[in-house]
């Protein structure tokens, strides 16, 4: 019997039978990053998670939006605030602000100063929350 290297498709919590597997993996990875108080780009996060085309970034943004809905429902800061665009001046993509607005947490201009201030507040709150709450699993 030989050992087979497992890829993400072989993981027990992946595949069509587990539609929430990717968001769980994303949250866990972001929790680890939050402890360092540094942002990560969408591309670097996708690579760290071993995501492959097609629709790599789309898979990731759907997961991030699900995490935002979960965070809003439990009154936590958005862990998705740790993810930024490579060429976005340190800000997430507009979808982050659109999702935050749909959840009633952001009411400003996603291209204006309000976006920078909102993101900075969410980033700081998320890193503080997860850095000081290692026992929290969700």
Describe it.
The chain has 138 residues and is mainly α. Helix content is 49%, strand content 3%. The protein has helices at residues 21-34, 42-48, 56-73, 94-102, 113-131; strands at residues 40-41, 83-84. The N and C termini lie far apart (37 Å).
| Share of residues in strands | under 5%
Structural Rg: 15 Å
- Average pLDDT number: 85
Q: How would you characterize the largest beta sheet?
A: 2 strands, parallel
Low-confidence stretches: 1-17
Number of helices: 5
Q: How does the helix and strand content classify structurally?
A: mainly alpha
Quaternary structure type: single chain
Helical content, roughly?
40-55%
- Largest sheet strand order: 1-2
**Cα end-to-end separation:** 37 Å
Cα shape: globular
Order of helices and strands: HEHHEHH
What's the domain count?
1
Could you tell me the number of beta strands?
Answer: 2
Q: How do the helices and strands line up, and which of them pair or pack?
A:
Layout: H1 21-34, E1 40-41, H2 42-48, H3 56-73, E2 83-84, H4 94-102, H5 113-131
Parallel strand pairs: 1-2
Helix pairs in contact: 1-3, 1-5, 2-3, 3-4
């Amino acid at each position: 019997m030989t050992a087979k290297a497992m890829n993400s498709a072989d993981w027990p919590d992946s595949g069509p039978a587990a539609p929430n597997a990717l968001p769980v993996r994303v949250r866990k990875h972001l929790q680890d990053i939050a402890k360092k108080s540094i942002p990560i780009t969408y591309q670097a996060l996708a690579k760290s998670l071993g995501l492959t085309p097609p629709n790599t970034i789309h898979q990731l943004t759907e997961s991030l939006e699900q995490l935002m809905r979960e965070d809003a429902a439990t009154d936590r800061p958005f862990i998705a605030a740790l993810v930024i665009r490579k060429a976005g001046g340190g800000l997430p993509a507009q979808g982050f602000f659109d999702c935050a607005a749909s959840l009633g947490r952001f009411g400003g201009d996603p291209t204006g100063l309000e976006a920078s201030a909102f993101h900075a507040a969410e980033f700081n709150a998320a890193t503080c929350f997860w850095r000081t709450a290692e026992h929290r699993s969700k």
